[in-house]
């Protein structure tokens, strides 16, 4: 399947058709033709793999925080879809951490605060409540974020 393209052509292929480029790289790796690899782009792509996994986890946590804030600050608007979103994202987090256990290292207070600040802005934007109405620091712990029984009203009122 691999054509013997010069490395410069492979580098150009990366910009034109990344799917074909990745097939070419995989074929060259399988064949042990390491001298023909487009190393510059290959290194970038391998580095990006970890970031993409981390970003998936951060996105799920951000959504959980966003909906927990809505749940707390707009109780009159609570809906089953909010419950499902929180539950689904908790399942996603479990899956991401199961597939990539090293992601557990982001469960620090610093990371939580970074993610929370974005979720806080999301919640303010979506609820039309002033940003100042939401706590400046994250009111939830990592344990609460992942706890299917938190908040109690969420788990007792509308289970899946």
Record keyword descriptors for this entry.
160 residues; mainly alpha; 68% helix; 0% strand; elongated
| Average of per-residue pLDDT values | 91
Backbone CA Rg: 22 Å
Estimate the helix proportion, in percent.
55-70%
The strand count comes to: 0
**Strand percent estimate:** under 5%
What sort of overall outline do the alpha carbons produce when their principal axes are compared? Answer: elongated
State the major sheet: none
Q: What string gives the helices and strands in order?
A: HHHHHHH
Task: List low-confidence stretches.
Answer: none
Broad structural category: mainly alpha
Terminal CA distance: 48 Å
Query: How many domains?
Result: 2
Secondary structure tally, helices: 7
Protein architecture, described:
- This protein is mainly α and 160 residues long.
- The protein has two domains: 1-37, no CATH class; 50-157, no CATH class.
- 68% of the residues lie in helices and 0% in strands.
- The chain contains seven helices and no strands.
- It has helices at 7-16, 18-30, 39-73, 80-99, 109-127, 142-146, 152-157.
- Helix 3 (39-73) runs antiparallel to helix 4 and helix 3 packs across helix 5.
- It is elongated, with a radius of gyration of 22 Å.
- The model has no long low-confidence stretch (mean pLDDT 91).
């Amino acid at each position: 399947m691999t054509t013997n393209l010069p490395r410069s052509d492979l580098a150009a292929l990366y910009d034109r058709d990344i799917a074909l480029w990745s097939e070419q790289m995989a074929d060259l790796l399988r064949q042990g033709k390491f001298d023909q690899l487009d190393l510059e782009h290959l290194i970038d792509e391998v580095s990006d793999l970890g970031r993409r996994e981390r970003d998936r986890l951060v996105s799920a946590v951000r959504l959980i925080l966003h909906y927990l804030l809505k749940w707390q600050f707009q109780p009159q608007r609570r809906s089953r879809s909010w419950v499902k979103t929180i539950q689904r994202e908790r399942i996603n987090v479990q899956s991401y951490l199961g597939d990539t256990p090293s992601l557990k290292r982001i469960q620090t207070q610093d990371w939580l605060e970074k993610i929370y600040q974005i979720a806080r802005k999301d919640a303010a934007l979506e609820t039309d409540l002033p940003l100042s109405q939401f706590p400046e620091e994250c009111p939830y712990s990592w344990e609460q974020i992942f706890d299917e029984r938190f908040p109690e009203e969420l788990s007792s009122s509308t289970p899946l």
